[in-house]
C-alpha cells in the first residue's frame, strides 16, 4: 500500500488502545447498563440480570428440586433423570422413583466481570483507527459496524450464558449448592471465547483488503 | 388507450416472467456469482480458513481447561514471571501457579497466558497462502515473541499491583489484554510483509 507506514500504524494502535481503555473504564458502565436493559427484555420470568458498575449479576429462582438427583446405589453414583424411567437398570428406575428432596424455593446468582467480556471491542476499534489509507467515511462506517456487531455479539453471548445458567439451576444444581454458583469451567469458557472475538471479525476483512491491495497483480 | 399502454397493461397482468426471461435472469445471477468468485476467491478462501482455524484453536483452548498439560504450562508461566520479577529486586515467592510479591499475590490462570493471542496469530499464519516453511517460521516467531511479551506483561502487572490496585485492575483487564491482540496482529503483518517480499525476490 502506497504511503503506508508500519511505525505509524503501531503508534496509532498503541495510543488508541491506552486512550480507549481509560475511556472504557467510565463509558463501559453505561454500555453495561444498556446491555443489561436490552437483555432483560429477552429473558424469561424467573431469570434476572442487574448491572452493578462493571459487573453483571445473573439471578435465577428455582421453585422446586432440580430435575436431576444424584444418588448412590450399591456404591455407584446414579443420576436420576426422566430418562431413567425407561432404563432397563432396576437401580436407575429406583433412583427416579424415589421421593425427591423437599426443598424450598432457592435463588442462585452468578457475577460476571463485564470488562473481561467486552474488552475485544478495544483492539477492534484501535485497529480500525490505525489501519492506514482508508477514507474518513470508510473508517467511520467500520467503527459503527464494529460497535453494532460488538453490541449484538455481546447481547447474544450474554443471552446464551443466561440460558445456560438457568438450565443448570433447574436441572443440575444440587440442593446443597445454594447461593453462588461457580460455573467458570462449565458455562463461561465457551461463551467468553465467543464474546471475546466476535467484534474482532470486523477488522479481518479490512486487513485482507489491505493485504490484497499490497500484493502484486495476479497474472491472468 | 394507446397501443403502447395496452401492451404495458398486458405485461403487468401476466403472472410472472416468461420461461426465457427466467432462464436469462438465472444465467445472469450465475454469471454474477462466478465473476464475484473469480474476483474474491483468494480472499474468501483466506477468510474461511482463518475462521475455521480460529474456531478450532479456541475450541482446543477451551478443551484444555483443567488438563495436566495446561496446569504445567500455568506453573511454567508463574515460574518465569517470578524469575523475571526477581531480576528487578523484590522478594518473590512462587507456589504452583501463584506468584506472591510482598503483600500482592497473583494467580496465573489460562487467560493470563499467551494462548488466546496465539490463536489469533496462528489462524492468520495458517490462512495466509504461502509455503509450509514460511508458515513454520511464522508459528515459531509467534510462539517465541508472544510468550516472551506475555511474561513481561504478567511481571509488569505484578509490579503495578504492588503499588496500585486500581491501576492494576485497568492495566490487567483492559490495556494489556488489548495490547496482546494488537501485538498478534502487528506480528502477523510483519510476518506477511517479510514472506511477501521473500516470495517476490525469489524467481
Note the quaternary state here. Answer: heterodimer
Poorly predicted parts of chain B: none
> In which range does the helix fraction of chain A lie?
40-55%
Distance between the termini of chain A: 21 Å
Shape of chain A: elongated
Q: Given the structure, what is the number of helices of chain A?
A: 7
Write down the domain tally of chain B. Answer: 1
Mean pLDDT of chain A: 73
Proportion in β-strands of chain B: 5-15%
SSE run of chain B: HHHEEEHHH
Which strand order does the major sheet of chain A show? 1-2-5
Number of strand elements of chain A: 5
The total number of structural domains of chain A is 2
> What is the topology, as strand order, of the major beta sheet of chain B?
1-2-3
Number of strands of chain B: 3
Q: Beta-sheet strand percentage of chain A?
A: 5-15%
The span between the termini of chain B is: 73 Å
Number of helical stretches of at least 4 residues of chain B: 6
Largest sheet, strands/sense/barrel of chain B: 3 strands, antiparallel
Unreliably modeled segments of chain A: 216-220
**What value does the average pLDDT of chain B take?**
82
